[in-house]
Structure formats: structure tokens, C-alpha cells
Design goal:
mainly alpha, globular
């Protein structure tokens, strides 16, 4: 029984944490950066960037290739397997429009089977890429589309339910996506795979932003400006070791997310895109995406005010109030949120 538990635990870490989290790096290095470049290309004098962003569009197999390499890297694959995974990721991504999930599945299976044969013959230069690409390509073509369809259906359910029941879903989506962003799981990959959009994506962006800005501000006394930037514009995932030691430090930003989520869905009706829903304030992707989703629906100055209010100001204020109250009660102490930067 202990061996089974150990195997399950190892499998969860390897596939659900290491590989899936690495997938986010591939997404950020291609599709998400493409979005940022697309926004920058609108600025005077930067129109030449548009050609770069077009290559990194959601329809481009380059995105799948980046995911494939990232997943193989997360699995610590050998060089030949790693480089061949660019092909498996692209195949899985483009086959029947399976998208990020198809790329992930294809790269995962291809990298694992390719690693099994690596170093077993004197013709690795042929055998390893062939096994990796064939195994990954076949798996992606058979399994990827079904899993992708399920994720899209799940996203449709969330999007529709949030529109019909904005109050409870605002709480649920905002708080859960925020926690997923902080946990060692790729919230960006989930949001894109589920094609979160509209009010649900808006609430998710608020929740993710609240976790990042909230932790950045609440831990300022321990981490100063370096920690403020690392968490506020990087990721609140840096707090995971501290959360494991003292879970109550997760309460302030999560509670703030639960409060701001329904405000987003019922009062301000913030909207978002699949790319921004799981990113929060990381690289300001969530803010670019919110602007893109709402552009033309209300005055531009009002969009900016709502973004500043819901993604930065209120997350900082609410989380700080809750964390300070918990410090007064002794539930959070100095050093509990100290980062090892």
C-alpha cells in the first residue's frame, strides 16, 4: 500500500505539477508574449512588432512547439527528446484544433516514451526522435481532441453559469482561479484550455490579480521592493513554501478575491479573455486582455479606472486590512511570508 501511495504521489508531482506547470512557460514564451507584442504594436513607432505577434497567434503551430519543448524540459528529458518534442507539441496543438491540451498530451507521452529508448542504441540520432514524434503524434491525434473537447465544454459551462448566476459564480471563479494561480498548477493553461471568456474570465483575472497584488503588499515588510515586484508582476507562487508551513497566510488574498469577484461580475461587469484569465498581473497580461475584451463597450478612461481599481487598488487594500488584522491577533507573524529571493 505504501508503494502504491508513493507511486501515485510521484506521478502527481511529475505530471500534474512539473509537466503542467512547465506548460505555462511554453504558453508564456509564445502565445502570451504574442498578445503583449500585439498590444505594443499599436503604439506609434512600434508597428513593425505586429509581424512578430502574428507568428505567435493562437492558430500558430509555433505555440504548440513551445509547449512541447516546455513540457519535455519539465520532465527533464534528454536533448534529443527535448528537441523532438517541438514537433510533437506542434502536431498535438494543430490536430483537429486540439490546442494547448493536445500539445500537452502529445508532448508528455512522446517525451516519456522517447526517454525510455534514449541511450539504448548506437543510432539514437534516428531512433529517439522517431519514437518521440510517432508516439506523441499518435497519442495527440487520438486522445488530444477528446480531452480538449471536454475542457472546452467545461469552460462553456463555467462561462454560461457565470452569466446566468453572476453572484455565486463570481465568488467561486475568482477565489478558485486565484488559488490555482498561487498553487504550483498552471492557471494560465487551465484558463486557455477551457476558453474562459466574458464575465467568468473577468472574475478569474480579478482573483488572480488579487492573489499577486495581495501577497505583494501584505508581505512588503518582509520582502521590500524586490518582493513587491517579484510577486506583483511575477507570480504569487513564490509563497507556496510559506503557505505549506503556515496555511493561514493564504486567507487574506483569498478572502479579498471572494469579495471582489462578485463585484466584478454583478456591478462592474468586467470581462476578459482566455489568455488573461489565468495570468492576473503577471507581465500585465491580464490587464491587456481586459482592455482588449472591453474596448469599445464603455469609455476608455472608465476601463482604465476599473482595471486600476479591481486589479490593483482594492486587492491591495483589502488583503492588507485582512492580513493586518490577523497579525494583530497573532495568527500571522513577522517572517511568515518571507521569500527566499
Amino acid at each position: 500500500m505504501d508503494n502504491i501511495k508513493r507511486i501515485i504521489k510521484k506521478g502527481i508531482k511529475r505530471y500534474a505539477l512539473d509537466a503542467f506547470s512547465a506548460m505555462a512557460l511554453g504558453l508564456f514564451s509564445s502565445l502570451i508574449v504574442g498578445l503583449i507584442l500585439s498590444q505594443l504594436s499599436r503604439l506609434p513607432g512600434l508597428g513593425f512588432i505586429k509581424g512578430f505577434s502574428d507568428i505567435l497567434s493562437a492558430e500558430s503551430p509555433v505555440v504548440g512547439a513551445a509547449i512541447g519543448v516546455a513540457v519535455a524540459h519539465g520532465l527533464r528529458a534528454q536533448p534529443l527528446v527535448l528537441f523532438s518534442s517541438a514537433a510533437t507539441g506542434a502536431l498535438g496543438y494543430t490536430y483537429m484544433n486540439a490546442g494547448p491540451v493536445g500539445a500537452f498530451i502529445a508532448a508528455l507521452v512522446g517525451a516519456e516514451l522517447g526517454s525510455l529508448v534514449a541511450g539504448k542504441s548506437k543510432v539514437d540520432i534516428v531512433i529517439v526522435p522517431s519514437v518521440t514524434i510517432i508516439a506523441g503524434g499518435l497519442t495527440g491525434s487520438f486522445v488530444g481532441p477528446y480531452i480538449s473537447s471536454f475542457m472546452v465544454w467545461l469552460g462553456y459551462l463555467i462561462n454560461t453559469t457565470t452569466t446566468l448566476h453572476p453572484l455565486p459564480m463570481g465568488i467561486l471563479v475568482s477565489s478558485s482561479m486565484g488559488m490555482i494561480l498561487t498553487a504550483p498548477i498552471s492557471s494560465a493553461a487551465l484558463a486557455i484550455s477551457m476558453q474562459m471568456s466574458g464575465l467568468a474570465a473577468g472574475a478569474a483575472t480579478v482573483g488572480c490579480s488579487t492573489q499577486m497584488i495581495g501577497f505583494a503588499v501584505a508581505s512588503y515588510r518582509e520582502n521590500k521592493v524586490e518582493g513587491l515586484i517579484a510577486q506583483g508582476l511575477g507570480t504569487s507562487m513564490l509563497q507556496v513554501p510559506n503557505i505549506i508551513k503556515k496555511p493561514q497566510i493564504w486567507i487574506p488574498p483569498t478572502l479579498a478575491s471572494a469579495i471582489l469577484g462578485p463585484i466584478s461580475t454583478t456591478i462592474l461587469k468586467l470581462e476578459g479573455t482566455p489568455i488573461g484569465a489565468g495570468m492576473g498581473t503577471s507581465g500585465l497580461v491580464g490587464q491587456f486582455a481586459t482592455w482588449t475584451a472591453m474596448e469599445g463597450t464603455i469609455p476608455s478612461w472608465l476601463i482604465l479606472v476599473e482595471i486600476l481599481l479591481m486589479h490593483f487598488i482594492l486587492p491591495a487594500l483589502l488583503t492588507l486590512v485582512f492580513s493586518e488584522l490577523m497579525r494583530i491577533k497573532g495568527w500571522i507573524q513577522y517572517g511568515d511570508m518571507k521569500l527566499k529571493l
